[in-house]
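Structure tokens please, single chain.
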Amino acid sequence: MNPENAKEVSTIKDVAIEYCVTCNFRPMAAVLAKQVEMELGVKPELVPSTVSGAFEVKTGNEMVFSKTQSGRFPKQGEVLQILKSRATGQ
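Here you go.
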């Protein structure tokens, strides 16, 4: 999806990616943030977490993905698909 088009259809205004500092999950958070920015035209906020093992993605106050709840990392493209679905209201 072209970022210019994404901004027109996206209802998502903010995304936060919380990552465990101790576990060094920042590189994964940064890659996901870049993907979200390119696909949806929204620049996510990277939030260092003190919660061990955290990798949480939120839009507004709504949890999109939680590693602490699911016990796993998101699959390739999983978070983007969820965000795209919510952005288009599907």
